[in-house]
Design goal:
The protein contains 11 helices and 12 strands. By secondary structure, it is an alpha/beta fold.
Length: about 350
């Protein structure tokens, strides 16, 4: 028995050393990978008029990139363009529903006319539906798939021919930790983000031979200011309250500016994946190492959530309560004002 234990210990030690060695090699390769400059590059950002997209657009402008932002709402798009131009950026703002392939192809054609080929594509457009599964209709899943999966596919297909012709390009797909761990009351969102992760990983494997590096980004909670524009079902006021509180707590959520910097750095290096924020890293690790335990924890979390199955849908801004207007949510409300999320009323 003692001999067997020694053999087991030896095997574990060898495995640990092998893993450490592989980690060191991968780390060295990452350090040696080309770090590109965004100065003079043409960057197309979907969902770039507010929230995380606008924060990333500011940072690309600061690095001297030519920035194209697109979104469906023309008023907020115009407001974002004016701000970015005020920062000295060379900016093109184009109204576009990226879930419509015809509109996407027309938009990319306009970009080619103004700036030439797209160097960096950031698929950031997104939406959130919050509520228990029983409150969700098929249309909620269709909507989530359109904006998270099909939109990213359409924009990628539109820019790929020129990237392949030049033998260089960067594509960043902003998914979510919800695309690695499915969170209760976010099933349409998580299902569509899982689809985006699969698309992004597959694109990475096939396009590397063409000099195109695809990065899958899975952030945890970020204070972008987005809750007022998310959709809520069931007991919408209670759903909005837990979502808003989680988004506002400094220990749980990350500042949008910090998250954006990490995403730009991952794009610069051409990383395969970026888990942004400690919550994302812990959740992904737990799901990988202990899927049963993770599922049990999530099931218990679900029992603590509101269970109203109402199918009526409300925006976050129509679900406010004294709690969500209190000092507890101050950071998220400040982010909403800063990042163009409070424009719609």
């Amino acid at each position: 028995m003692a001999g067997q234990n020694k053999k087991e210990a030896s095997r574990l030690s060898l495995g640990a050393l092998t893993a450490a060695g592989m980690g060191a090699v991968m780390g060295l390769r990452a350090m040696l990978r080309e770090k590109v400059s965004f100065e003079g590059r043409t960057v197309l950002l979907t969902g770039g008029s507010r929230g995380l997209g606008l924060v990333m657009a500011r940072q690309f402008v600061a690095e001297g990139a030519r920035v194209i932002i697109c979104a469906r709402e023309e008023v907020e798009l115009s407001r974002a363009r004016d701000e970015l131009e005020g920062l000295g950026g060379e900016v093109l703002a184009l109204p576009c529903d990226v879930s419509d392939r015809v509109q996407v192809e027309a938009m990319v054609a306009q970009v080619h006319e103004r700036f030439g080929a797209v160097d960096v594509l950031v698929n950031n457009a997104g939406g959130i539906q919050v509520g228990p599964l029983e409150s969700m209709a098929e249309e909620d899943f269709v909507e989530a798939m359109k904006v998270h999966f099909w939109a990213a596919l359409y924009t990628s297909l539109a820019v790929l021919p020129e990237m392949k012709r030049r033998g260089w390009g960067r594509i960043v797909n902003v998914a979510s930790i919800g695309g690695r761990v499915s969170i209760p009351h976010l099933v349409p969102y998580s299902a569509s983000k899982f689809a985006l992760v699969g698309l992004s990983d597959g694109m990475r494997a096939e396009l590397a031979q063409d000099g195109i590096l695809v990065t899958t980004v899975c952030p945890g909670l970020m204070r972008t200011g987005s809750p007022p524009n998310a959709f809520f079902k069931g007991d919408h006021e209670a759903e909005y309250a837990w979502f808003m509180l989680g988004d506002s707590l400094p220990g749980m959520s990350m500042k949008a500016e910090r998250a954006a910097r990490k995403i730009l750095e991952a794009c610069r290096r051409g990383d395969a994946e970026a888990l942004v924020g400690w919550t994302a890293k812990v959740a992904a690790l737990a799901r990988t190492l202990a899927p049963g335990v993770t599922a049990a924890v999530l099931a218990q979390l679900n029992r603590m959530m509101p269970q109203d199955g109402s199918t009526d849908r409300y925006r976050g801004r129509d679900s406010e309560t004294p709690l969500t207007r209190s000092w507890v949510t101050k950071l998220t409300r400040q982010a909403a004002q800063k990042n163009n999320e409070d424009l719609l009323h």
